[in-house]
Each structure stands twice: as C-alpha cells, then as structure tokens.
Design the sequence.
C-alpha cells in the first residue's frame, strides 16, 4: 500500500548504507540468552572477515555473560536473516551474504543460559 | 435596554456555529486545504454535535477556577516540603520518565489541535479543537510547574524537552506524536482523541495519578485531577469524531478502521514504558499493569467496540496479542532499563524482595518462571561487586523504536520476536506483527524514522562512545545508574536521619 499524502511525498531513506561512513549495520543475537534483552547492533565494514566478527566483535559485547567463555565455536549454529547458514570464516561479511541491517543469530548447543533458564 | 439572558444552547449557537460562513472571495477548498485529501467524506458539517456546547467565555472561566485551585495546592506542597513525605525517593524515577516522556507529548498534542482548530471546515469541530489545544498546552505547563519543585531536590529533571528530541527511549513517545502530527487532520484526531485518549488513557492515568497518591505525591495527584476533567471532554470529542465520520459516509469505515488498528498499536507500544512505571518504578502500586489492562482494555474497551459494532467497526487488529503480552510487558521493559541503566536519565534498581513477592502474586504465570531469575542474578552481582552495565546498543524496531525486547508470548515467551521485510532493497526490522503491518501500509513514512541507535552510528549524536552520547543527551553523571548509588538516595537517607546508607532502603 502506498502512503496517502496531500501533495506527493518526499523520497528519503534515513538509514542508507552510505550514511554509515563505510560501515554497514549488523545485528547480532545470541539465542537463549535473554539477559541481553535484545539483539545488539554493530557498525562493521562489509569487508571484515567473518572470523573477526567471531573473535573480536562478538566477544566485545557478549562476554558480558558468564557462559560466554564456555562457547564451542565449532559447534555453534548460525542463522542469517531467518535461514540456517554456515559462514565461511575466511571470507568477508559481504561475501558471506551479510547485508546492511542483516540479522545474525547464533545458538550454542548445551549452553542455554544461567542454570538453563534461557537468560 | 436590559440585555436578555440567553440560554446555553442559544449562546453556543451564536458564539460557535454563528462564527462560520461560506466563503465567496476564496474557494472553501483553498481556505481549508487539509480536510479532504485523506479520503474522509463529510457531506454535512452541521451534523456535528458538540456534547458540551461549551463557549469560549465559559471555557475561560472554568479553566481559571481550576488553575487557581491547582496552584494553591502546589504552593502549599512546596512550602511544607512535601517531597520529604514521599514513600521513597526511588519513586522519582516514574516522575522523571513522565516529565521527559509524556509532557513533551502533551505539547505535541497542543500543536496538533491548534492546527485542527484552524483547518477543520466545520466550526463546531474547530472550536472543540481550539479548546483542546489550550488544554494540552495547560497540561504541559502545569506538569512543568509542579515537577519543577522536585527539580530543586532530585536529579534527572533538568532538560525534559531537550532530551525528548534526543534520548534513545524518549524517541518512543516522540515518534508516536510525530506520526500523528504528520498525518492529515482526521487521522490525527483518530489517533490522539480516540485511540489514545478514549481507548487507552486510563492506563496512563491510573498508574500516574493513583500511583502518585499511593506514594505521597500530592502535587502530582492534584495536577492529574486538574487535567482529568479536561480529559473527560477530550474523550467525548474522540468518540464524537469517530461516530460523526462513520455517520457521514459509508466509505469512511475502512479508512477509520485502518487508523484505529494503526494508532491502537502505536499508542499501546508507547504505554509499554508506562507498564514498567506502574509495576516497577512505583514504590507502592495501586494495581498491576495486567489488572489495569484487564479492566480498562479487555472489559471497558471490549464493551466500547461492541457498541461501535453497529457502525461496522471491529476491535483493533492485534488486540489479542496486546492482551497476551500483559503478563510480560512490564518485566521485559524494566529488564532492558536495568541492563542499560548507565544510559538512562532516571535511576534503575532491582525490585526489593517484597516487591518481587508482589510481582509473583500479581503475575503467577510468568514472574517466577521467566523474570525473577534475571533480577536475582543482577542483584547478586551487585552484592558481589561484579555487576556491569551492558555496554552496547540494542536493535530497535523501525516503527515503535523500542529495543526489540518483545518475545513470542503465545508460543515461546523466551524467544525474541523478530519480524522483518525488505523495501527498495533495504532490510527493516520490527518487534511484532503490529509494527510490521504499520510499516507495510506506509513504508515511505517509516524509512525516514530517526532511530537513535542508527543515528549514533551515523555520527550524529555527539560521538561514538557512551559517555559522549550521554553528554550530548545532557545526562549529568548523577542522573542515571543504580538508585542505591545515587545522590537522590543519599539525600533521602539524610532527610530521614539514616546516615548508614542501607542497601535495603526500598524494602520498607
Ligand atoms: Fe493532555
Ligand atoms: Fe488530552
Ligand atoms: Zn515495534
């Protein structure tokens, strides 16, 4: 449906990727860890290797949780924009299909929050 | 010759309906350029019934009386140091959220009604909107005057309007107001007068006014009452405009239903902040969010829509989800404020043991099972000295702008609710089907949303670090953080002769 407006309507998108100074916005959520309350947002260069997301970006925030140190990354299950996916760690975010404002979710089998409470 | 005294109806006719005329030098459509483009068909503006038949001169007289009473009470509250008789200084978090979140919305409502007071073609509707414009300005003003007394004694109350334009959680009410303001006049009045004031307003007034009374805040209670007598007039206007539009033309029904669906959901999401105010920020709580929702929405709202069913109007879309969320809402909102409590302009705190038991009792299906563990965890971390705030920025919903904290309450309450769509090649995210529907009906509008998190990353909010952003918000270092580490708490202890700051301060 299109908007009903008096005289035309300005065509303006506030969050175009060009406005992020070479970065794109990437959203990351750790399933079954609701202490984080929501997915977290990061401005990242599209050429960043996926491996750096795992070794640098994700720990910078998600190590807030006591279970973070127990994660076995080899067993982690990934989901990109609603589809299960196996990231190629050596390839970039863009090459892995991570777009501006993509949502990456990861699940850590065996780790289901403090005392298994999913928080 | 002695002037003959006119009866009220006659006076109303002369002083209201008598001031309009059919223009001849200019076309009516040029004089009133905004009241047709939305597609609402009005065949006879004279059918507009003003249930109050209030004339401007009578209005001024009533309002002046109310002001006199209100200011007398505010003055005596200040002279008697009423702030020392509050239940607890942590109660002020609710007032801080109110003045920064709700008062600017009163001002926005004033702005919108002033526009309608000029641009509706029917003079009866125009005069009703002019009065409401003045009422809303009065609400903003009396709230500022009342709360300015607290600003002398407590933190976080110094820049509400400046902060309303910037702060991450204040974009929630602000964007709702601007959504309505940037629509046409009929949508605006459907949003504010009907969806917000008629259907949902009690959910704001109960925690706020009764909540104030329960916590010894007589100043706030008084201005709440002073505003509520205006509010009953506003609610009547909300119902009248809906009936008027529906009676004027059958083509109006689908348009109005669409607006009610949209603005019910928008306004309900704004009230998510109020749910946390009600269940967590108030020291003594008159009723839980869930109890208030059941009475004021499920029962009263249900009866209202049953009555409106004769016009073909249905309950707002997604109302069942809002009802299912009632057992989760306040806990989810307060959790995110506690996790990000270094970036709020009010103090956060884990509920006291007594409060936790009250929450268990009021939320027997959800609190112990889903929410108590996180508050107990943070509480323990604070006792051990290991607690840290979450130093990151959450994903926001493109429409309501709340961090995407809501969960699949009907199927799996511990699973975050993610909805998304693509528009012109870009990804957009929503907290719920309600927000996604709103986007998909008018994507051109919501792609312009000023989302605080995205603005920070675009470099528009004072810097890239949290301290820089907080400085840009004009949050002083003592405004946020844990209540028990605060200046407000220390001052409260001094007033009450407790020099040993006790961690259990809110338990009594
Ligand atoms: Fe108001
Ligand atoms: Fe109002
Ligand atoms: Zn939303």
Sequence:
């Amino acid at each position: 449906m299109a908007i009903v407006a008096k005289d035309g309507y300005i065509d303006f998108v506030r969050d175009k990727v060009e406005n992020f100074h070479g970065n794109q916005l990437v959203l990351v959520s750790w399933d079954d860890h609701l202490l984080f309350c929501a997915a977290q947002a990061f401005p990242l260069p599209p050429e960043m290797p996926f491996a750096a997301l795992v070794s640098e970006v994700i720990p910078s925030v998600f190590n807030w949780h006591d279970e973070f140190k127990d994660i076995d990354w080899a067993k982690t299950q990934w989901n990109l924009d609603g589809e299960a996916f196996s990231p190629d760690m050596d390839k970039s975010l863009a090459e892995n299909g991570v777009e501006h404002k993509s949502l990456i979710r990861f699940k850590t089998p065996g780790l289901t929050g403090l005392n298994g409470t999913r928080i | 010759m002695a002037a003959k005294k006119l009866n009220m109806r006659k006076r109303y006719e002369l002083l209201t309906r008598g001031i309009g005329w059919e223009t001849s030098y200019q076309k009516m459509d040029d004089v009133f350029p905004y009241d047709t483009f939305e597609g609402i068909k009005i065949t006879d503006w004279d059918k507009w019934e003003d249930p109050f038949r209030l004339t401007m001169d009578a209005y001024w007289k009533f309002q002046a009386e109310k002001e006199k009473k209100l200011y007398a009470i505010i003055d005596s509250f200040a002279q008697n140091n009423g702030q020392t008789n509050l239940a607890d200084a942590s109660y002020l978090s609710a007032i801080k959220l109110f003045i920064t979140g709700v008062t600017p919305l009163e001002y926005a409502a004033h702005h919108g009604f002033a526009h309608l007071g000029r641009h509706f073609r029917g003079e009866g509707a125009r005069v009703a909107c002019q009065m409401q414009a003045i009422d809303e300005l009065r609400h903003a003003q009396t709230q500022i005057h009342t709360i300015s007394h607290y600003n002398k004694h407590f933190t976080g109350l110094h820049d509400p309007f400046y902060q309303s334009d910037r702060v991450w959680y204040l974009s929630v009410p602000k964007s709702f107001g601007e959504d309505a303001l940037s629509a046409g006049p009929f949508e605006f009045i459907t949003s504010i007068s009907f969806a917000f004031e008629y259907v949902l307003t009690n959910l704001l007034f109960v925690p706020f006014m009764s909540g104030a009374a329960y916590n010894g805040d007589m100043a706030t209670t008084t201005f709440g009452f002073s505003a509520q007598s205006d509010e009953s007039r506003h609610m009547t206007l909300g119902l009248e405009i809906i009936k008027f539009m529906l009676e004027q033309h059958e083509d109006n029904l689908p348009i109005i239903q669409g607006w009610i669906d949209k603005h019910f959901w928008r306004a309900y999401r704004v009230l998510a902040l109020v749910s946390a105010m009600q269940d967590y920020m108030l020291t003594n709580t008159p009723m839980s969010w869930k109890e208030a929702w059941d009475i004021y929405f499920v029962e009263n709202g249900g009866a209202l829509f049953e009555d409106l069913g004769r016009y073909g109007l249905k309950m707002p879309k997604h109302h069942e989800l809002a009802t299912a969320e009632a057992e989760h809402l306040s806990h989810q909102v307060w959790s995110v404020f506690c996790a990000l409590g270094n970036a709020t302009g009010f103090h956060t705190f884990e509920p006291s043991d007594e409060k936790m038991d009250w929450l268990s009792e009021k939320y027997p299906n959800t609190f112990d099972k889903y929410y108590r563990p996180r508050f107990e965890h943070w509480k323990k971390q604070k006792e051990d000295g290991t607690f840290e705030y979450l130093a990151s920025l959450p994903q926001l919903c493109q429409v309501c702008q709340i961090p995407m904290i809501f969960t699949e309450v009907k199927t799996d309450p511990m699973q975050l609710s993610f909805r998304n769509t693509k528009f012109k090649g870009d990804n957009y995210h929503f907290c719920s089907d309600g927000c996604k529907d709103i986007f998909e009906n008018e994507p051109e509008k919501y792609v312009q949303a000023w989302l605080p998190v995205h603005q920070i990353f675009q470099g528009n909010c004072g810097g890239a670090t949290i301290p820089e952003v907080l400085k840009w918000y004009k949050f002083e270092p003592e405004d946020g953080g844990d209540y028990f580490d605060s200046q407000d708490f220390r001052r409260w202890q001094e007033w009450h002769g407790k020099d040993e700051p006790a961690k259990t301060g809110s338990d009594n």
